[in-house]
Write a structure and sequence with these properties.
Number of strands: 12
Radius of gyration: 18 Å
Oligomer: single chain
Strand order of the largest sheet: 2-1-3-4-5-10
Low-confidence stretches: none
Number of helices: 8
CATH superfamily of the domain at 2-155 and 182-209 and 253-267: NAD(P)-binding Rossmann-like Domain
CATH topology of the domain at 2-155 and 182-209 and 253-267: Rossmann fold
CATH architecture of the domain at 2-155 and 182-209 and 253-267: 3-Layer(aba) Sandwich
Shape: globular
C-alpha cells in the first residue's frame, strides 16, 4: 500500500507522515509548496501509483474566509473534487479531512455523522462543498473525516497559544460559552491509518477526542499541566470577544460511526492532552 499525503507540511499532515513512517509505510509527503491541489495536471501525476490519498490540505483561516471567499471555496471546495477525480481515474482510495464547521453549532447534543449540515460561516460552506464533491465523485471509495479543535506540535493552535500566554501575562481571558472537543492531531493521524488498515466502509466519520469542555476549560487544563495556577484564566463570553466569523456555541461530535469500522472512539480529551504535553507543551 502506498500513501500520498497532501498538505503534508501542516499540523495534521505532518503528524500523519510521521505515523506512517513509524509504521514502515510507503508514504509520499506532498506539502503545499510541492503540490497545488487546484492544479489538475499536477494532481493527476501525483496521485498516479498511490493506493491511498489523504487530503489534509485546506484553507483554514475561518475569519479570513468571510472576505476571501473565492480562495476558500477553491481550496476547500474545488480542490478536493480535483483530487477525487484523480483518485477515481487511478483507482485510489481518498480520505478527506473536514470540520465541525459544516454544522451551525446550535445543537445541545452531539452531532451524529448523518446530521443535516447547515454551516453558518463561509469557511464551513467551503468545507461542506469539498465533502460533497468528494462523496459524489467516489461514493464507494471516499472517506470524510470530520475533526475539530485540533492542536499539535506543529503550527499555531489554541493549546500552544495558551502555553505562550501563560509565560507572558498575569491573567488570560478565555471564552467559556463555546463547547467542543479538544483533539490531538496525532490521535487523528493514528486513527486515519487504523481506519485504512481495518478496510473500513466508505462514508463519514467523526474523529475527535471524546468528552467535552469549553475553551476556558481547555485553557485551565493547559495551565495546570504547565504548573501554572489555573485561576489566572478568567471566563468571558463570546459577546466579549467578537470575531468576523461567528463561532459555533456547540461543536460536540458524535462517534457512533466507528462501530462500522470495528473501532472504538478516540480516547478522552483530558487523557490525550496529558499524552500530548511532552511534544506539544515541552513538559516532562
Amino acid at each position: 500500500m502506498s500513501w500520498l499525503v497532501t498538505g503534508a507540511g501542516g499540523m495534521l499532515g505532518s503528524d500523519l507522515v510521521d505515523v506512517l513512517t513509524e509504521r514502515g509505510a510507503d508514504v509520499t509527503p506532498a506539502p503545499r509548496t510541492e503540490l497545488d491541489i487546484l492544479d489538475a495536471a499536477a494532481v493527476d501525476t501525483a496521485v498516479r501509483g498511490h493506493t491511498v490519498v489523504v487530503n489534509t490540505a485546506a484553507y483554514t483561516d475561518v475569519d479570513g474566509a468571510e472576505t476571501d471567499t473565492e480562495r476558500a471555496d477553491a481550496v476547500n471546495g474545488v480542490g478536493p473534487g480535483i483530487l477525487a477525480a484523480a483518485c477515481a481515474q487511478h483507482g485510489a482510495r481518498l480520505i478527506h479531512v473536514s470540520t465541525d464547521y459544516v454544522f451551525d453549532g446550535h445543537a445541545t447534543t452531539p452531532y451524529p455523522e448523518d446530521a443535516p449540515a447547515s454551516p453558518s460561516t463561509a469557511y464551513g460552506r467551503s468545507k461542506l462543498a469539498g465533502e460533497r464533491a468528494v462523496l459524489a465523485a467516489l461514493p464507494t471509495g471516499a472517506t470524510v473525516i470530520r475533526t475539530a479543535w485540533l492542536y499539535g506540535a506543529r503550527g499555531r493552535n489554541f493549546v500552544t497559544t495558551m502555553a505562550r500566554l501563560a509565560e507572558q501575562r498575569d491573567q488570560v481571558n478565555v471564552v467559556d460559552d463555546q463547547h467542543g472537543q479538544p483533539t490531538w492531531s496525532r490521535d487523528v493521524a493514528e486513527r486515519i491509518v487504523d481506519l485504512t488498515d481495518a478496510n473500513a466502509p466508505a462514508g463519514i466519520y467523526h474523529a475527535t477526542n471524546t468528552g467535552q469542555t469549553t475553551w476556558f476549560g481547555l485553557a485551565r487544563a493547559v495551565f495546570a499541566l504547565l504548573g501554572h495556577d489555573p485561576e489566572r484564566v478568567r471566563p468571558i463570553t463570546t459577546a466579549d470577544f467578537p470575531r468576523p466569523a461567528p463561532r459555533p456555541a456547540y461543536s460536540v461530535l458524535g462517534h457512533a460511526g466507528w462501530a462500522r469500522a470495528g473501532l472504538k472512539p478516540l480516547r478522552a480529551w483530558e487523557e490525550a492532552l496529558a499524552a500530548a504535553a511532552p511534544s506539544v507543551l515541552g513538559t516532562g
